[in-house]
UniProtKB/TrEMBL annotation:
Membrane topology: Multi-pass membrane protein
Species annotation: Pseudorhizobium pelagicum
TM stretches of this protein: 7-24, 44-62, 74-92, 98-117, 129-149
Xref: CDD domains: TSPO_MBR (cd15904)
Cellular component, GO annotation: membrane
Annotated GO biological process: tetrapyrrole metabolic process
Classification via Pfam families: TspO_MBR
Key words of the record: Membrane, Transmembrane, Transmembrane helix
InterPro entries associated with the record: TspO/MBR-related_sf, TspO_MBR
Highest rank taxon of the organism: Bacteria
UniProt main location, coarse: membrane
Protein name in UniProt: CrtK/TspO family sensor protein
């Protein structure tokens, strides 16, 4: 029962804070006025992708918490969550693609570090972060493109 509650708590908190960060920092007129790269996905893609990623991130976090709550892996997991939740306020809230880039690059690095630290201890958690690496890598390219184009 404790395991199930841990998973539920992680999923509710990660998805909830992710939704709160997104709703609190919606792209507005400022963002619409920016020149976008040709590969910018339609806005409706972001909600389902992030919701799915947040569930995967939460499961990896719960697995890590249950195995080693005071480990370096857990600290990296929390660090990437802080950076993740800071990106929307940095980019949209501050209306600063450069500030967003200064947040998303260490976010990408922390995600990669988590996978590396997890790979030999809990390969499932490492695999759960692979789509996250792909998406944040793509988001980093988008963010950099917006900086360059504007």
């Amino acid at each position: 029962m404790k395991k199930i509650l841990t998973y539920v708590l992680f999923i509710v908190l990660v998805v909830g804070f992710g939704a709160l960060s997104g709703v609190s920092n919606m792209p507005g007129e400022w963002y619409q006025s920016l020149e976008q790269p040709f590969f910018q996905p339609p806005s409706w893609v972001f909600g389902p992708v992030w919701t799915t990623l947040y569930v995967l991130i939460a499961i990896a976090g719960a697995r890590t918490w249950l195995e080693a709550p005071a480990s370096g892996r857990m600290q990296v997991w929390f660090a990437q969550m802080v950076l993740n939740f800071l990106w929307s306020p940095a980019f949209f809230g501050s209306e600063s693609p450069i500030l967003g880039l200064l947040v998303i690059i260490p976010l990408l690095v922390s995600i990669i570090v988590f996978v590396r630290l997890s790979w030999n201890r809990d390969r499932v958690s490492g695999w759960l972060f692979v789509p996250y690496i792909a998406w944040v890598g793509f988001a980093t390219l988008l963010n950099l493109s917006i900086v360059v184009l504007n």
